[in-house]
Amino acid sequence: TEKLTIFGGVASPATSGTGANGNFAIESSNSNSLYFGSYLSSPYGCWIQVSDLSNQALTYPLILQPNGGNVGVGTTSPAASTTLTLNGNQAGLALSRNIGTDTTFTFSTDYAKMYLRDSVGADYTMTWQNDGKVGIGTTNPTNNLVVYEAGNAGLTIATGTGNTGNIHFADGTSGNESYRGIIQYNHSEDALKLAT
Fold first, then answer.
1. The pTM is what?
2. Which of the four pLDDT bands, split at 50, 70 and 90, describes residue 91?
3. Which pick of 16, 144, 151, 174 has the fewest CB atoms within 10 Å?
């Protein structure tokens, strides 16, 4: 039922020379060109690469919707400029420099939470719930901020030697309502103070 079928070989995109190893190309007189191809090995994906037709070592940006409009991945109805819809328990977004043994960080979601996890640890690093609660080291924060570590844990507020570190207890967001009670460490005096 396809109107156009292109059948070709399989190969990774070239990183040098003049041939891109693709099955379909849109080449320009300015040399910046768009190539489509298929991988030979697992997971047998297909690739898109923008590069220079005379030197595949030169790469260029792949631009989607330059005049506006949403982009959807895994959805036909993107509700934001970029909408990523997960399938089951798949990781939603992975961030990596792809250099050596650098850590890869992944974001994923379920019906009420967003998770951040690294590729090394067995547990999720951070969790954001739709009720505003945040967990570090736990996926089930029961308070506004929960920090969990199976061993010793701590919280550090670091400032310059002539400054103060403060924890404010507030019943409002402006004026003196934003600091009804204060725990303060004054570094210039080497003094810990409690104030209301």
1. 0.69
2. low
3. 151
